Amino acid sequence: MKNRTTHFLRLIAKADLLFAVLLLCQSVTAQRDVSKFIASDKMADTGIVNLYRNMAMLAPDYIMIGHQDALSYGINWKKGTDRSDIKDITGSHPAVFGWDIGGIELGNPVNLDSVPFDEMRKNIISVYLKGGINTISWHDNNPVTGKSSWVDDKNNSNGIVVKILPGGSHHEEFKKQLDKVADFIKSLKAPDGSLAPIVFRPWHENSGNWFWWGAIHCSVEEYKSLYRFTVDYLRNTHQLHNLLFAYSPDVGFKDAAGYLERYPGDDLVDIIGLDDYNSLNTGHPEKLVSNLEIIAQIAIDKNKIAALTETGCNRLERKDYFTKEMLSCLDHSELTRSISWVLFWRNADEKQHFMPDPRHPAAENFKEFVKNKHILMLNNIPDMYKYYKKLNLTGKDI
User: Fold this and answer.
1) Which CATH architecture best describes the domain 33-380?
2) pTM here?
3) Average pLDDT, integer, range 188-217
4) Would you list the DSSP string of 267-336?
């Protein structure tokens, strides 16, 4: 009897162990209930509601590729019709298109990288009509000094943020800047009258000290107040409900607590973002993996979307960068594969470019990269603004 009991207990122990292993092996897909992914704006437009749901449906298994200013210029061209360096290589545009509205607050006709705002508007609407994703960053000129976003002194606080918050000496000037931002967003109107849904990414890389809103230049609460006021002013004062908001610090955090130190709040943020040029370019892929897993787990815990909101290797002198470096990190684990998109920075010219063109030595490596079963381009995704019970992808099946 004793031997039978011992044998029975061993079987139970093995069963418990097997059950535990099965639990550990559950995919991120199985853990996600897309009905729980609700935009922070409770009055969000239908396009935003569907976009967020579709991001959640894709994110467990697929990663969309993005490129800054993809339609505006390339390494060796300045204006094109439905052209991008990525399309010249692969036959498809990226799935995610990055734009920057730095300069809009000054009333300039072009942004800080000389992209005409009229052209940007047309391209954003075009991407929307094709079902692609638009994300906008804002290198806001200093509302107190009139200088650029970048600071002259990275070692000492400039005290700008506190001056533009409610009650501050330059609060009204800051509100005028936001008014111009709102006017541009309101102008992104499709022929049917709907506004193009936008992932808006203000006050990015705030963990660094190079922008006037950086960590050394304002307290934790001042930064949160800046972000909160921005969202509230656009969402409630201007009644803009076509926005998802991304929070995207730079590297430097070691865990979730470090990442969340300046996090403005779940009621404001939709995208758990990260800007990371540093990890791969300093030979530390394990750091990129760790950073991605941290933001991915935060996103899962909060029922939000994680994204690598800015990255890249300038000039791509390591020709296997996409497959051996970036893809190895993205495909490292279920957590890293739950990143919604990766946005590579812009192709300004021969000296500054983060994507290849067809003549570039890294072009073939990028073609191999996008063939991976987890990687999505514009020609792979459905219209991201429609409601689906199940997403059907073109040319990809896991």
Assistant:
1) Alpha-Beta Barrel (3.20)
2) 0.92
3) 98
4) TT--EEEEE-SHHHHTT-HHHHHHHHHHHHHHHHHHT-EEEEEEE--GGG-STTIIIIIIIHHHTSSTTG
